[in-house]
Every structure is written in C-alpha cells, then in structure tokens.
Specification:
This protein is of the alpha/beta class and 227 residues long. It has six helices and nine strands. A nine-stranded mixed beta sheet has the order 3-1-2-4-5-6-7-8-9. α1 packs across α2.
Length: 227
C-alpha cells in the first residue's frame, strides 16, 4: 500500500526567505508538529483550534504530479515539522521527475538523504540534533528577544557550521526597535556567517495568491500580532 502523506496545503509562490529568496517555488506543507511554538505562523498544522476539519491524504506520486504541473524551480517541503514523517517515498517521487527538494525543519529529527538544500530553524522546545546542524546549508534563527542570538550561538558551542545564519525577527516583533537593533549590531560587529533576514513573502501576500493556500491561522485570533 502506498504511503499517504497528511497535507495541510500546497501552493505555488516564491521563496520568501534565505539564500534562495525570490525564486519560483512550489510549497508542500505537511500536517503535524510536536514543537508547537507559541508564535507559530503555521498553526493550522497542529493547533486544535485551527486544524482543518479534513486533512488531505496524498501519495508521493500525486504530489509529484501536482508539482510538475506547476513547473517550479524547486520544491519546498515544510510543515509543521516534515521530518516526523517518512519522506523517502516522497523524495524518490520528486527525483523521478527531476525536481530538487528543499527542506525546512527545526532539526530535532533525523533528516533523510536526498534533499538539494536544507534549512534548519532551531527551536528551544526541541533543540536540533548535532547531525542536523552539520547538514544545514543555512540556519534561520528566530530572534524573539534581544539576547536570542547570543543564547543560540552559545547553545551550539560558540560556532555555527553553516556559512549562512539568518537572523529573523519573530514576526510579531518585526517592528520592535530592540530586536532589530540586536540583529543589525550582530551583523555589523561580526559579519559572516550572520545575515539579517526577513520574511519578504508576507508583505507581498505572495502565498495567498494561490487559491490552494490556506488563510493564516493566528494563535489567539489576532492577525495584527503577525501569527
């Protein structure tokens, strides 16, 4: 019997973050996440108040066909936390149609072989595995407090293995001068691997232009908070 993947949403957009910013991409967001960040911007993948009444179940081949029809430059597999699922069949199906797959993960679970690009965004609730940090082509740190950057850098032994460590303001604090100053000062004082980051797709509302994308599911029901 074919593996069925729980799919929260699929949509065509462009990558709004990181090294591949601005490139045409097809997103597959899988359902389920044990991490459950309070500021999560994909709360419909896990929060009981926002989980869809019906979650689509799709085979790897069905998802590959959907992606192929969209003709993106690459696929972004995200969640929730995609690495809680067995991704081997999905990766094989994408490889069969020659579609590179990028992964977005918290890094707390083993990462399957076959990804063209790995983004690790570590979370305190379930810290990343050492092998996940070693696999990361880029790291995305969510800067929640002024000392978040220093705390994470200390937590990984003072040195990042990736050449790209993006510093993203937690979205509800995207205009907080203290958070923005902390990011700016880190980049100015240290430079590489630190880079100032932003979720560029959000002000564009790029994802929601595809009718397959789900509307935002804000925790607490207040979209002005940004999540």
């Amino acid at each position: 019997m074919a593996e069925l993947y729980p799919v929260n949403e699929t949509f065509l957009s462009w990558q709004g973050e990181g090294v591949h910013l601005g490139r045409k991409a097809f997103f597959i967001r899988l359902q389920g996440c044990p991490v459950k960040c309070t500021w999560c911007d994909s709360a419909s993948t896990w929060h009981p108040q926002y989980v869809p009444k019906q979650v689509r179940k799709a085979t790897a081949e069905e998802l590959a066909a959907e992606v192929l029809a969209a003709q993106p430059e690459f696929v972004v597999l995200t969640g929730g936390e995609p690495c809680i699922h067995d991704l081997s069949m999905l990766l094989a199906a994408m490889a069969a149609v020659k579609l590179p797959v990028h992964l977005e993960t918290c890094g707390a679970y083993p990462i399957a072989d076959g990804f063209a690009w790995v983004t690790v965004s570590p979370k305190w609730a379930k810290p990343p595995l050492a092998e996940s940090l070693a696999r990361a082509d880029e790291v995305k740190l969510i800067v929640e407090e002024a000392d978040s950057i220093e705390k994470w850098t200390a937590a990984v032994g003072g040195k990042w293995l990736s050449n790209h460590v993006w510093l993203h303001p937690e979205w509800s604090k995207r205009a907080d001068p203290i958070i923005l100053k902390a990011i700016t000062e880190k980049v100015k004082n240290v430079g590489a691997p630190y880079r100032a980051g932003w979720q560029v797709h959000k002000p564009y509302a790029a994802d929601s232009l595809d009718e397959r994308a789900r509307p935002p599911a804000p925790l607490g029901g207040d979209p002005t908070k940004g999540f």
